[in-house]
């Protein structure tokens, strides 16, 4: 069937009178369904509006500079043979196709695969925007890696470690406590309670939003259908749009005795089975060092081995230095530029052979070895090819700034779309995907995704690092404030900290920030806001920070760059 139709602006959310900044078609053009026809710009974003039908453009009702609202006429289209208004509804509101309806056990506007921080956020946001949502998760508990075996349990244990360490350090102020008695069962239960409270809360939130939970292992069958297998059977779900949020898994090193229970990954470490006498942490990145902090405080003798020449690769060395100095005194050894070449599972322990710059002369034996050498995306485990979704060799799913994969109705978010693999990146991407599906003009274009190592001291950074600036030849000015001059840092007995800010030499706008010291993870947020708001050194320096606080060090670092600092001598060039 063919005919003439008016193409109007679909529901793009809560927007009225949006500017048309580009017309992408001309009278006489032959276009396909989904081809972009105009570009709109609101105060929040720009978005292309696709044609819902294929056909030939007969008349244009708008021009650049016009404003348009939902229902406003854009163009007149002569439909191609075989296309009709009835079977081609607006792409932003497409119902599940009849073919899918006929054969699926359940139907949804939006199916979300995986209930980690990416998945549950996407599901909840899509439901709040009026979509019928099914959230699929293989485990009984929601929350994914972050809540169950990642961010949350690790931070609960790190808090316990902080308390032990702070109590011990009070000796310098004349207050001593006895040696802490550690009830491992109670510590584990306490950590599990925190996790349960959060995962239970998610189930409630899903119920309140009428998000349907389906438990089982999901695999795509087509671009509109997914199968879920569980111990109680299989079912298929038809959908208009899908959001893949299947996360990542710990990397295993082939050739290691991976089945030996003494060789653990981060999940094994968080299970807190025992306090090993000697423990090797393979990988000096964030996760390995956080776990080392916990086990060292609980009493394990820790060795760390890292292939690179520095800990926390990617972080500026001056931020890592105070951490390394502190842990060098607490751990047995930190072996940099060194790798593990063999692990033998013996009755007496795991016998490890090293090679490299700081390798010990002979193999060492450990009660446990924690392998924390990174995480691998789960993109190859969901039968994505059946939906036509491209997955790269590493298992990542490429997406555009709208979180859309190469298949227009399938989106992907979180660890499975790329680095950095962090929960706060996943949740922000999740909202973008859900909003784009609901027709809102959203895109994922942050200026920075901050990173934090919740070690002792914490290390946090965002935006441009000094290392990147140097290697990319980016000009910058630096304001650095040593915590030794902070009254608050002195008061808590932690003067090793450093706050540094990088600024554009011309505009003086902030480019990046790095903080090392207790609570650096809490402090870095202000600098991310400054970056997103385009703040310059003067804005930060003139913002009155409460005294005495650690966040004052951000203000002081800006004053160092400005040359207005009075709490220290002026940097030489500013005198
Ligand atoms: C020890 C540790 C500490 C961490 N600490 C932090 C931190 O402090 N801050 C931070 O930002 N990040 C931290 N992370 C990283 C963070 O946990 C991840 O970035 C985050 O969980 C990614 O979220 P996601 O939604 O992409 O995937 P995930 O959390 O991995 O969730 C994916 C979900 O999908 C489910 N799934 C996968 N495949 C299927 C399938 N076929 N069928 C059904 N269900 C499926 C999984 O069961 C899982 O629940 C930490 C990670 C670890 C391991």
Topology (SSEs and partners):
Blueprint: E1 4-8, E2 18-23, E3 30-31, E4 36-41, E5 46-50, E6 55-60, E7 67-68, E8 73-79, H1 98-103, E9 106-113, H2 117-128, E10 133-137, H3 144-149, H4 151-169, H5 184-208, E11 212-215, E12 217-222, E13 225-230, E14 233-244, E15 248-250, E16 263-264, H6 266-271, E17 278-282, H7 286-298, E18 301-306, H8 317-330, E19 333-336, E20 338-346, E21 349-356, E22 364-366, E23 368-371, E24 375-377, E25 410-412, H9 423-437, E26 451-453, E27 459-463, H10 466-472, E28 477-482, H11 487-491, E29 498-503, E30 510-516, H12 520-532, H13 537-542, H14 552-562
Parallel strand pairs: 9-10, 9-14, 10-11, 14-25, 16-23, 17-18, 17-23, 18-19
Antiparallel strand pairs: 1-8, 2-4, 2-7, 3-6, 4-5, 6-8, 12-13, 13-14, 15-24, 20-21, 21-22, 26-27, 27-30, 28-29, 29-30
Helix pairs in contact: 2-9, 4-5, 4-7
Bound molecules: flavin-adenine dinucleotide.
Low-confidence stretches: 85-94
> What hetero molecules are in the model?
flavin-adenine dinucleotide
Tell me what portion of residues adopts beta-strand conformation: 25-35%
CATH topology name of the largest domain: FAD/NAD(P)-binding domain
CATH superfamily of the largest domain: FAD/NAD(P)-binding domain
């Amino acid at each position: 069937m063919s005919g003439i139709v008016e193409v109007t602006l679909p529901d793009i959310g809560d927007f009225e009178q949006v500017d048309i900044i580009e017309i992408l078609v001309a009278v006489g053009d032959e276009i396909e369904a989904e081809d972009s026809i105009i570009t709109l710009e609101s105060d929040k974003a720009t978005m292309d509006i696709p044609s819902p039908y294929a056909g030939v453009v007969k008349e244009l009702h708008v021009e650049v500079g016009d404003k348009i609202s939902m229902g406003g006429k854009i163009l007149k289209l002569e439909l191609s043979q075989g296309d009709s208004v009835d079977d081609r509804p607006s792409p932003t509101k497409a119902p599940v196709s009849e073919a899918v309806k006929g054969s699926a056990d359940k139907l949804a506007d939006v199916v979300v695969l995986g209930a980690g921080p990416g998945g549950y956020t996407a599901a909840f946001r899509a439901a709040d925007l009026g979509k019928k949502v099914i959230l699929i998760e293989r485990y009984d508990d929601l929350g994914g890696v972050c809540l169950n075996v990642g961010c949350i349990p690790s931070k609960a244990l790190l808090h316990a470690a902080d308390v032990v360490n702070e109590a011990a350090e009070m000796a310098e102020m004349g207050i001593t406590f006895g040696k802490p008695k550690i009830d491992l069962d109670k510590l584990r239960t306490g950590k599990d309670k925190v996790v349960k409270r959060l995962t239970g809360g998610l189930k409630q939130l899903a119920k309140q939003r009428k998000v349907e939970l389906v438990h089982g292992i999901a695999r795509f069958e087509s671009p509109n259908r997914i199968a879920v297998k569980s111990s109680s059977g299989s079912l298929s779900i038809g959908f208009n749009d899908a959001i893949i949020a299947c996360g990542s898994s710990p990397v295993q090193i082939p050739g290691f005795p991976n089945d030996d229970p003494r060789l653990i990954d981060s999940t094994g470490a968080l299970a807190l089975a025992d306090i090993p006498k000697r423990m090797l942490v393979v990988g000096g990145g964030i996760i390995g060092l956080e776990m080392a902090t916990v086990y060292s405080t609980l009493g394990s003798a820790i060795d760390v081995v890292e292939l690179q020449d520095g800990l926390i690769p990617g972080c500026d060395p001056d931020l890592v230095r105070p951490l390394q100095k502190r842990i060098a005194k607490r751990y047995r050894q930190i072996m940099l530029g060194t790798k593990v070449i063999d692990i033998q599972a013996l009755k007496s322990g795991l016998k490890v052979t090293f090679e490299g710059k700081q390798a010990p002369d002979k193999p060492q034996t450990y009660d446990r070895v924690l392998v924390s050498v990174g995480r691998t995306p789960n993109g190859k485990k969901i039968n994505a090819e059946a939906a036509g979704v491209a997955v790269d060799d590493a298992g990542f799913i490429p997406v555009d700034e709208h979180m859309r994969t190469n298949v227009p109705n399938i989106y992907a978010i979180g660890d499975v779309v790329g680095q950095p693999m962090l929960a706060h990146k996943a949740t922000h991407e999740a909202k973008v995907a859900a909003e784009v599906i609901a027709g809102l003009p959203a895109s994922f274009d942050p200026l920075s995704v901050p990173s934090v190592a919740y070690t002792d001291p914490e290390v946090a950074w965002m935006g441009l690092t000094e290392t990147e600036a140097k290697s990319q030849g980016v000009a910058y000015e630096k304001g650095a404030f040593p915590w030794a001059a902070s009254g608050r840092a002195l008061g808590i007995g932690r003067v090793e900290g450093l706050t540094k800010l990088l600024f554009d030499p011309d505009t003086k706008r902030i480019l990046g920030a790095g903080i090392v010291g207790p609570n650096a993870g809490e402090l870095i947020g202000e600098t991310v806001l400054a970056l997103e708001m385009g703040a310059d050194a003067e804005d930060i320096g003139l913002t009155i920070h409460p005294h005495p606080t650690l966040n004052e060090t951000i203000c002081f670092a800006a004053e160092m760059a400005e040359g207005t600092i009075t709490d220290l001598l002026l940097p030489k060039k500013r005198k």
